[in-house]
Specification:
By secondary structure, the chain is α+β, with helices and mostly antiparallel strands. It has helices at about 1-20, 150-155, 215-220, 280-290; strands spanning about 100, 105-115, 120-130, 135-140, 160-165, 170-175, 175-180, 190-195, 200-205, 220-230, 230-235, 235-240, 250-260, 260-270, 295, 305-310, 310, 320, 325, 335, 355-360. The protein has a 9-stranded antiparallel sheet with strand order 12-11-15-13-14-3-2-1-21, covered by helices on one side. Strands 4-20-5-16-17 form a 5-stranded antiparallel sheet, with helices on one face. The chain is globular, with a radius of gyration of 41 Å.
Length: about 350
C-alpha cells in the first residue's frame, strides 16, 4: 500500500510541473534572446551589517600652466647675424650701474667694489645679435697713425661701450683683414692669440705650444684677432698661462666668452687704496667665478680704460707724463660695441638716449 502511495505522489508532482511550465511549442513562455537578465546576488548569511564604503575623494585637476611665449624675431636675418645667438628678450640691465638695452644690443655694466680685497672692477655683460656690432678700431682712424686717448676714439665710433685692445703688440686682425703678423714670443704680452670667429665664438692659441696659422684661420672665419695674453680661462678651467712670466698686481682688462653672441669685459682699476689691481691667480679666480667658457687677457696697466656713451667710467692708473700726473695714457686700438647700420655708421648718442640707463651714484 505504501509503495502504491509513493508512485501516486510522484505522478501528481510530475503533472504539476508540466502544468506550470506550459507547452514550449506555443512560444508564450519562452523568453526571446536578449530578454534574459542575469543578476548576481550576494547573500549576507550573517547578522553583520555591511557598511557602505565611503566615496573616494577625487582631486581637482591642477591649473594648466600658461604656455611660454616664443620670442618673435624683430627683423629678418641680415649678413653678419650670429646664427646660434640666444639673444635675451628681457632687460639685462635691471640691477646694473650702466645699461644699454635694444633689440640688437644689450649691455649691462656693474661696478664691483671689494674693500677687503682692495679691488674695483667694471664688469660689462654684452649680448649682440650681429657680429657687426663688435669692432676693433685704430687710434686716429687708421692703422699706424699714432696713439690717442680712449674717449676720442670711442666718440668717433659713437660707441656705446669701448675698451682698450692689445696695443697692436703683434698679430692684428680687424674684420677679417690682417694688418700685422705674429711677432716672436717675448713673454706674457705676446705669448698667445685671442680670436673671434664669424660664428661668434672666441678661441685662444698658446703660441709655441699650439699650432696657429693666420692665413689658414682667416679662411676658417677668423674675424678679429689679437696677440697678447696670457690665456686666463680655457673650457671653463684655468688657462695654460705663460712659461716666462707671472702677472703681478696691475690694472687689468680681460675679454670673456660664454657662447656665440654673449661676452663679458672686465676692467679692473689699480693704484689706489680701494684698487690694487689683480695678479694672475686673482684674474683666473675672478673670471672663473663669472662662469665664462674662455677668457683672454688684453693690455692693462695705464692702458686699461672703459668708456660708456663717450665718457670714461673707470679710473685709469695715474702716470707721470713729463712731470704732470695724468690718468691713463694714449692707446693704439680699442674694442668697440655699437649699433651700426648697413653703411657701417652708428647713430649719435642723442638718438639712442632712450635706451640708456645710468644708476651709478643714485
Amino acid at each position: 500500500m505504501k509503495h502504491l502511495l509513493r508512485i501516486l505522489c510522484a505522478v501528481l508532482a510530475f503533472t504539476c510541473v508540466l502544468a506550470c511550465a506550459g507547452d514550449p511549442a506555443d512560444g508564450q513562455n519562452t523568453p526571446e534572446p536578449g530578454d534574459v537578465t542575469v543578476e548576481s546576488v550576494v547573500v549576507n548569511e550573517t547578522d553583520t551589517v555591511l557598511e557602505t564604503p565611503a566615496p573616494i575623494e577625487t582631486q581637482a585637476p591642477a591649473d594648466t600652466p600658461e604656455p611660454t611665449e616664443t620670442p618673435v624675431p624683430t627683423r629678418a636675418p641680415l649678413p653678419g647675424d650670429i646664427a646660434t645667438v640666444n639673444f635675451p628678450n628681457y632687460d639685462t640691465g635691471v640691477d646694473a650701474d650702466y645699461s644699454y638695452q635694444s633689440d640688437e644690443l644689450r649691455i649691462a655694466i656693474k661696478v664691483l667694489v671689494d674693500q677687503e680685497a682692495k679691488q674695483t672692477c667694471y664688469v660689462a655683460d654684452i649680448w649682440m645679435r650681429s657680429l657687426n656690432a663688435f669692432r676693433t678700431v685704430f687710434a686716429k682712424g687708421a692703422f699706424n697713425k699714432g696713439s690717442e686717448e680712449g674717449e676720442p676714439i670711442a666718440a668717433r665710433e659713437h660707441a656705446i661701450l669701448a675698451v682698450n685692445g692689445s696695443y697692436n703688440q703683434g698679430l692684428t686682425i680687424h674684420a677679417g683683414t690682417q694688418y700685422k703678423g705674429l711677432r716672436k714670443n717675448k713673454g706674457w704680452n705676446s705669448g698667445a692669440v685671442g680670436a673671434i670667429y664669424t660664428d661668434g665664438s672666441l678661441r685662444t692659441y698658446r703660441l709655441g705650444k699650439e699650432a696657429f696659422d693666420a692665413k689658414k684661420e682667416l679662411k676658417n672665419g677668423l674675424w678679429h684677432g689679437w696677440q697678447f695674453g696670457p690665456i686666463i680661462i680655457r673650457d671653463y678651467e684655468p688657462g695654460p698661462g705663460s712659461d716666462s712670466y707671472s702677472l703681478g698686481y696691475k690694472a687689468r682688462n680681460m675679454l670673456g666668452y660664454y657662447e656665440p653672441g654673449h661676452y663679458v669685459i672686465v676692467t679692473c682699476d689699480a693704484g689706489r687704496d680701494d684698487a690694487k689691481g689683480m695678479n694672475q691667480d686673482e684674474m683666473v679666480a675672478f673670471m672663473k667665478s663669472l662662469g665664462v667658457k674662455e677668457a683672454f687677457n688684453l693690455d692693462g696697466g695705464t692702458s686699461a680704460v672703459m668708456v660708456f656713451m663717450g665718457e670714461t667710467i673707470n679710473r685709469p692708473t695715474r702716470r707721470n707724463d713729463d712731470g704732470k700726473i695724468v690718468e691713463g695714457r694714449p692707446i693704439l686700438d680699442m674694442l668697440v660695441f655699437a649699433e651700426y647700420d648697413a653703411n657701417g655708421v652708428a647713430p649719435d648718442f642723442d638718438e639712442v638716449a632712450d635706451k640708456v640707463s645710468v644708476n651709478r651714484g643714485n
